Every structure is written in C-alpha cells, then in structure tokens.
Amino acid sequence: MNETAQEYTAIKLIARPTGGPITDELFDIVTLARPALAQGELLVQQTHMSLDPAMFGWMSPDTESYIPPVALGDVMRSSGIGKVIESKHPDFQVGDRVMGLLGWTEMLKTDGQGLNKVQNDLPDEAVLSIFALPGMTATQGLFEVGKPKAGETIVVSGAAGSVGSIVGQLAKADGLNVIGVVGSDEKAEWITNELGFDGAINYKTDDLDAKLAALAPKGVDVYFENTGGPIQHAVFNRMNAHGRIAVCGLIADYAKAVPDLGPNWIQVIKKRLTIQGFTMPDHYGDIPALLAKLTPYVMQGKIKYRAHVLEGLPAAISGLNLFFTGGNQGKLMVKL
Question: Is the pTM of this model over 0.70?
C-alpha cells in the first residue's frame, strides 16, 4: 500500500460467531478515507497483522471476560507492526517502527497510547513472531506463573504454535526437560530437531498416557496449557506435588457450544497444585520488563521461529480457521 494513498481498507465485526468455522458473514470489508491528524496524533501504516487464538474470545458476546468484546460495527481487534507515515505527535517521528493493538486495518490514526517502538533491526515477521503478543505471553506465563526451575519437567500443549514454541525454547534454555504436544508428525519433528525440545507427543496418533509416562517418568512439574482436550487430563494426572499449571488458552473448546469438562479437583488438593489463568491485558504495563527479559535469549540465538504468512487483509477471515484445523505452520500473520 502506498504511503500517500488517500483511501485504505479495514474489516469490521458485524456479527458474533456461534460455533464452527469463521465465515465472511461475520465481517464487513470497508474502504475508508485517509484521516486527518490533530495535534498529538499520528498515522500508522500496518505492514504485518497478527492472527491469534485470543480473537475467538474477543469476538464473543462475553462481557465478563478479561477484556471487553469487540463491539459490533468496530474494526476487529488484533496486534500488529507498522511504520509511522505521518505524525503530529512529539514522541513519534515519520519512519518509526511501532507495534501494538492496531486492528484489522491498513491504516490507524492514534494518539500513541499502547504503542511500543520497535528497538531492534529484526525483520517485521520476526518481531511479530517473537516480540509481539506471542513472546510477551510466553514470557509472562512461563516465568511469572510457571516459575520454572532447572532440572524440572515441563509439558507444553500447542507446542508448535506461536506461544508454545517460545515457551518450550525458553524452558530448554533454562535447563528444563521439555515435552511438547502437537498435532502432526511434522510438527513433532520441528520442535525436537529444530527447537531442541526433549520429546514430542502427537495427540492425534500417540497413546497419550503411555507416551507421557515414557517422556516424563518422574512426573510433570509445570504444564503450560494452550489447547485443552484429552491431553489436559493426561498431564493433570501426572502432575507432581506443588506443580504449577499456567492456563493460557483452550483452543479445543472455543468452537464448542458446551466446553469439555475439566479434571477433577481432588488432585489439586492431593498434589497442592497451583493453577492460574492469565491474559496479557493485565500486564500491558509490564511489556518493557518482559521485552528486557526475552531479548537476551533472542540475541543469543536461543529462540527460533517460523512464520505462516497470508497475503492481503481479507485473508484474515478464513485464516482464523487454521487454528481449528492445526493447518498453520508457525506464527500466523497477514502481510498487508
């Protein structure tokens, strides 16, 4: 998209999903005029837009969730990276790279609140894969909730996804035995051969209990939950005393009218387990500290990534369904 363009495309949410695949009928693709800026405002041209499982919650009508739902008629919420193409804001200059909640839009007029300047020279795909929402979520959940210790065993579900792959690599770098749960043999090979996980479980083809017993003979100390489903019960039953469970996502349940039942709480008492759900809107103020925590791992070459890039803003709609099928190969994003 040309920086001097006088029109841009955005996608608004106009209906709530009711279970099942995400379809075009939920959205309205609109063409808008380039906005004029007042003092203290800037205009961002988005280059790459992140697709994340959290979006299913943002589209729901649940007003008691951790963040208000996207209002019908509003531009769909998402994080992204872009560059400043016009500025009347003293803290942002034309050419600055920024990331934040930019939304499903090619351009965004903003007062700068919630925007973070990108302070490294990594490509946009790398920044969005590592330093945006996935990396912040992984760092917060692993270190602040999981509280890992060298020598412990951690199981990560959704381990080939954008968050899970970073969690596993951080844990491995800190000396843990890392087991990842994935949905294909290709993903299992990637997390073990490329990312350095100690073992992988294909939940679609492996005997979950038997494979978990073989890979974690001393039990599980930390469980980083991204998916829900049968693996949740298998891992829960092998948790060690004083184990920690960080509940980040439950993608297996998002498309169901009635979610699956969770494990029985008797084990929580017997094993004195700590189970904590967390979401990043509670920690936006911590992002500078989280970036400072994560950056050394990246600079030391301990964090690898791969991006699954879709082309063009409208691709976001059907692209969300890749989370349900497991068809995404790496961090899912849209190039604008």
Answer: yes
